[in-house]
Design goal:
With 346 residues, the chain is α+β, with helices and mostly antiparallel strands. The chain contains 8 helices and 12 strands. The strands form 3 sheets. Strands 2-1-5-4-3 form a 5-stranded antiparallel β-sheet. A 5-stranded mixed β-sheet has the order 7-9-10-12-11. It is elongated.
């Protein structure tokens, strides 16, 4: 039976392998080929046990299913391909009703499951953040306008010019808070999608940051020039990356190195949707790293690791990335902090 018979399984985001009664490989979808780094063209018809160095537990489970004709779920299974790192997986073995295939084996990488759960938590938290921010901003806006107007009226009534210094403090602080509120509400503007080159976005960010830090910051570029155009909102993406890079420059105290790196990623799951092609954009700096107590909360609003920071930059970056059906993650150790943005290219 040809692999085209099972081609519908190729749409699945999870790795799937079909084997026959003799436990030989009939079919593997592209997610399984990517996960285990093999080709169905070469492995088709071969015993499944030959695919791995340590397949004893998996094969024993298959024989158990064969003997009882029931489904089986294996937890924390370790499988190793020759020359590859070991993979920690859960798997579900299901007997099939087709004449050729005897078992359908679905593999679920534990790290991928944790990643999906983390992404879901981020999405839920982001939605809660947006509602909180919107309600808070509207609650503050009206009394803030009244406060500023009252200060202006009071200033006109003062007969001693030196006292106007205090009303000016009130007016300027009210204006500063108004700007902050406007930034809080900005993410609710829907993105304006158009074809764009991600490297034009990065070059714009690079020129802005080097203009702010002309002496101490070096920005290195490692671009994949073969990347296709991205469908997105150029201004939102510029702002998303700019917020990350400015944070890096501030963490470096204006002296250090930042690297922009772009690559194509294949067969990627973003926000529970599978994409054949995605953009991987990394911003890496050699600064002191993010304090451990902040690493899990850096994308929360009003959380900042520096004095005087608004704690909104990374929140806005995450919102803009999510507008593009993408994800943003951070890994940080002393001497290396890496923000990774993944965006679908379809």
């Amino acid at each position: 039976m040809s692999s085209s018979t099972f081609s519908g399984l190729d749409l699945l985001a999870t790795p799937v392998i079909l084997v026959d009664e003799a436990l030989c490989i009939l079919y593997a979808n592209s997610a399984a080929e990517d996960l285990f780094a093999f080709s169905l063209r070469n492995a088709g018809g071969q015993p499944l046990a030959h695919l791995f160095i340590d397949s004893t537990e998996l094969v024993a489970s298959l024989y158990e299913v064969l003997g009882h004709n029931w489904s089986y779920t294996g937890r924390d299974l370790t499988l190793t391909r020759p020359g590859q790192a070991s993979l920690h997986l859960n798997c579900v073995i299901t007997p099939t009703e087709t004449s050729a295939a005897r078992f359908l084996i679905e593999f679920r990488p534990i790290e991928q499951q944790l990643k999906l759960a983390r992404e879901q938590r981020q999405m839920d938290q982001q939605q809660a953040n947006r509602e909180l921010i919107r309600n808070l901003a509207h609650e503050i806006r009206n009394p803030l306008g009244g406060l500023r107007g009252s200060a202006q009226l009071l200033e006109r009534e003062l007969d001693r010019p030196e006292l106007r210094e205090y009303t000016q403090v009130i007016i300027k602080e009210a204006d500063r808070l108004q700007v902050l509120l406007d930034r809080l509400l900005t993410p609710h503007r829907p993105p304006q999608f158009a074809a764009l080159n991600i490297h034009e976005v990065l070059e714009r960010v690079r020129s802005l940051v080097l203009a702010e830090y002309p002496d101490g910051i070096r920005i290195e570029r490692d671009y994949d020039a073969s990347l296709p155009d991205l469908h997105g909102d150029k201004e939102q993406l510029i702002q998303a990356v700019l917020n990350i890079v400015r944070n890096a420059a501030q963490a470096l105290n204006g002296k250090g190195q930042i690297e922009f790196r772009t690559r194509a990623a294949r067969q990627v799951t973003l926000a529970r949707q599978r994409y054949k092609l995605a953009l991987e954009l990394q911003v890496v700096d050699n600064g002191p790293g993010i304090p451990e107590e902040l690493r899990e909360r850096i994308f929360y609003p009003l959380v900042s690791g520096r004095e005087g920071g608004s704690g909104l930059g990374l929140t806005l970056s995450q919102t803009f990335v999510q507008h593009h059906r993408g994800t943003i993650e951070c890994q940080s150790t002393p001497g290396r902090t890496c923000f990774t943005i993944m965006l679908p290219l379809e």
